[in-house]
Design a protein that fits this description.
It is built from eleven helices and 18 strands. With 355 residues, the protein is of the alpha+beta class. The strands form five sheets. A six-stranded mixed beta sheet has the order 13-15-14-16-17-18. Strands 2-3-4-5 form a four-stranded antiparallel beta sheet. α2 crosses α3. The structure holds zinc ion. Zinc ion (ZN) binds next to loops.
């Protein structure tokens, strides 16, 4: 049986093909992208659906055809069939309109949109005295705290904050953390009080937020996400860059740690969310290498030496550095010392290279 697929329609419409091997990718949205260089419309080749996290237009194969050609959806079907030739069958899921796969989450919107929304959100919040005190005790100055943009999660008022942001023209769909309640009112997901940490890309734009949760001993840091919520959006394991792009950076775990090391040492620090999430790291390192990055000092917690699960992740990380042909060395810090000044420069940078 030869089913009509999203890929066929993409081809018929002359839209860009998915980048090698990817099932989900972005093209310019005919509804909201005035600038054709912008790409907000997400096409999912595998699921045969599309959705724009910016303006909300969505549908299946025939809707996409109808959106681009202006032909009514009912006629789109016949036209596609005749263009593709005989023997083609409509995929079962697309035969009945109501039986289309339900998309409950939005695909993530682009970083510029997320940065604008998160920046506006943080501007509405403040930093509680206990959180400020906590950060000062870690060695940050008032000025640095201000610059980092750390804020305390609000206890109440998520619905009114979301409404204000929308009224000010900021997009909430496709921005992790925001979702619709059952009554369709937009709100913001929040689990526990804590410090909101902006997680920034190489250009300083806020890609996502983390929360350092108060009074928990396990999983202290969590991503702000609205996965599995109505019109919500899941967070990714983003990297975070503290400092300007240089030929040498320190690589550590967690954005807050990266910010503190950067502010104490002046070094440029890149954070991975964890050694077992390396997808974004590769992309970031490639970006940084284009701007002159040549060597990396890794600085991870001592539990690497005892935890096999973490150790495997760490070995994968070193393999990635090798693959990218970056010079690297390792900072280890003695577990008897807590302070960030107590790193021990364990290996010289060339040890791995010569080994
Ligand atoms: Zn759109």
């Amino acid at each position: 049986m030869n089913l009509i697929q999203m890929a066929d329609v993409v081809d018929l419409l002359g839209l860009p093909a998915p980048p090698n091997g990817r099932s989900s990718y972005y093209v310019s949205c005919p509804c909201c992208d005035e600038d054709p260089r912008k790409r907000h419309l997400n096409i999912n080749i595998r699921k045969n659906v599309f959705r724009c996290p910016r303006c909300g237009v969505s549908g299946g194969i025939f809707d996409l055809y109808s959106l681009y050609t202006g032909i009514p959806r009912d006629e789109a079907r016949d036209e596609i069939m005749s263009k593709l030739g005989t023997g083609r069958v409509v995929p079962k899921a697309n035969r009945i309109r109501s039986a289309w796969p339900a998309v409950t989450e939005y695909p993530m919107t682009d970083v510029d949109t997320r940065d604008a929304t998160y920046t506006a959100l943080l501007a509405k919040l403040s930093l509680a005295p206990d959180h400020r005190e906590n950060l000062l005790q870690r060695g940050l100055t008032e000025e640095e705290i201000e610059q980092l943009g750390y804020k305390t999660t609000p206890v109440l008022g998520y619905v009114s904050i979301a409404a204000q942001l929308q009224a000010e023209g900021f997009y909430l769909s496709g921005v992790p953390g925001f979702y619709r309640r059952e009554d369709d009112v937009w709100t913001f997901n929040h689990e526990k009080r804590g410090i909101l940490i902006p997680v920034r890309d190489v250009d300083g734009k806020i890609q996502g937020l983390q929360i350092r949760r108060d009074n928990v001993s396990k999983r202290k840091f969590r991503w702000v996400s609205s996965a599995e919520k109505k019109d919500g959006c899941r967070a990714e394991g983003w990297t975070h860059l503290a400092g300007t792009v240089r030929d040498e950076i320190i690589l550590t775990e967690g954005p807050m740690k990266a910010d503190i090391i950067h502010d104490l040492s002046g070094d440029t620090v890149l954070a991975v969310p964890g050694v077992n999430t390396l997808t974004q790291l590769k992309l970031t390192l490639e970006r940084l290498m284009e701007s002159g990055l040549r060597q990396v000092k890794t600085a991870f917690d001592m539990d690497l030496l005892t935890n096999i699960h973490v150790q495997n992740g760490y070995n994968n990380l070193l393999a990635l550095l090798d693959e990218l042909d970056l010079r690297y060395g390792t900072y280890l810090w003695d577990p008897r010392y807590k302070g960030l000044d107590d790193y021990i420069w364990e290996y010289c940078l060339d040890k791995h290279r010569s080994a």
